[in-house]
Amino acid sequence: MVRPALVLPPAPDDRWQLATQMGVTDAVIHTLEIGDGTQFWDYDHLRRICNWFEDAGLSVSVVEGSVPLTDTTRLGLDGRDEEIAAFQQFLRACGDLDIGVVCYDWMAGIRWARTSAHVESRGGSYVTAYENDKMRGGPTHEAASRSREELWENLEYFLERVVPVAEEVGVKLGLHPDDPPREEVRGVPRIINSVDAYDRVLGIYESEHNGVTFCQGNFAAMGVDIPATIHHFGDRINFVHFRDVEGDADEFVETWHDDGPTDMLAAMQAYREVGFDGPMRPDHVPTMAGEQNDNPGYHTKGRLFAIGYMKGLLEQTR
Ligand SMILES: O=C(O)C(=O)C[C@H](O)[C@H](O)CO
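Above: inputs. Below: predicted complex with 2-keto-3-deoxygluconate.
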């Protein structure tokens, strides 16, 4: 079953209540986006958060991005074995707490990148955009000296050590695409930028626990056919980010969920057809009237709209 989910703060505020009022039961913890930026979780800390959510009628089904994984591991630096051990420990805690999905990414040096967060969209709402020409210049990033093959070797090293633990404890990993899905951003190489790249990742360790976070907006920026690609990955999709963009990996603008180039109904139909059984969250949303745009993509009103839209699509594909 597709379960609409939302990134919620790790302590309650009205966003928890808005979620339950909309019938959302699945919470995503991503404190780098909503919260205090915590990335290193131990069992007790997570237990406390899970209990709190449960008391409010919500369950934590994903920890995303804000996970104990840094460039030490992505770049294969000294200390990666200790970091991987911490990640294994974190997976065990998630398993104990029935947190079914862990979403991570392999973007070294530069996280998800935008060059504008105030592009005017429908009715004066704001969306984010990326223009590669505006990204050039500035100091050379330390990670720019790394080769694509090194990043692959490091990812392989990581997966060989963490997927067996994920299998053992019943947690599914979902690798998020590089955003934007380019060969490089400001000279820093990126590798998770195509369907072929994902095929390579999935082949490194054949297990449903080594899967995909299907961030639709990034696959749209890759220029692929979205429903066909959902069918291509099938049961290796462990988590979905529902959103759309207009443009490509050199230059794009994010769109309202109901106003982008992708046939969202066909996409939802495809998730149904492949039997996707897991959390699906709206990703970046427009900033709407009365919101400050101080956390672009993650304000509340657009997410309420997106959940309603997703639920409508889900009814159409029953
Ligand atoms: O770039 C995006 O679309 C994201 O949502 C970023 C992800 O949250 C993050 O990279 C997950 O590890």
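The first helix runs from residue 14 to 21.
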